[in-house]
Amino acid sequence: MIKGSSGQYIQATLPYIRTEIPIIIVFRALGFVADKDKLEHICYDFSDTQMMELLRPSLEEAFVIQNQQHWTTLENEGATVGVTREKRIKYAKEILQKEMLPHVGVGEYCETKKAYYFGYVIHHLLLCALGLRAVDDRDHYVNKRLDLAGPLLGGLFRMLFRKLTRDVRAYVQKCVDNGKDVNLQLKQKQLPVALNTHLLLGTGGRQMQAGTRAGVSQACGLNSVQRILSNSPSYKFFGQWLLGWCPS
Which terms in the GO cellular component ontology are assigned (predicted)? Predict the structure, then answer.
């Protein structure tokens, strides 16, 4: 929750969006314009005055953004500077369709499903804020998604390859506009250099932004047998929990 002029309003973090977006703007981008439609996805009982009072600042904060201006908010925070407005809106729609809650669906006409799931998450958040529901244990394996080396490297490569294609497209278009020869050899080292950098740092995602994940790689000390064993998942015991246990 963010402190605003009308109180604490809720914001969401979307993939490939540089800043946090108010939840009401996200609902409008998903196709739900009326405030009643948004509230029906979040608050299942309109007589619950406590939850409705928590949602009031979010509605008031986003009241100034009307009609199609919600796309302006998303496109300005996500797309590259210099492209046309139509391309920025298309880019924002692709983010909502393919990157936001991909496990719910990535095809067309999935906006309703994503809106229900998005409202369900906000509903649980408000229940925790009101003290009506216990806070989830982030360290419990039930609430974790185990990303092994394959998915982590795959997501990292996908992000870097998309960036490479955007840079090559912009470079080729610039050469065509200026009448210069295209020399793609300048871009051939961009992908391996970026991949090696992330492997050395052990992180995935854009640096210094929300969504950056640790664990892509881990330095293993080979100075002594003790350091090798300390990095082995088979030898990490913490109290009554057996974390990182390797069945093999």
Answer: DNA-directed RNA polymerase complex
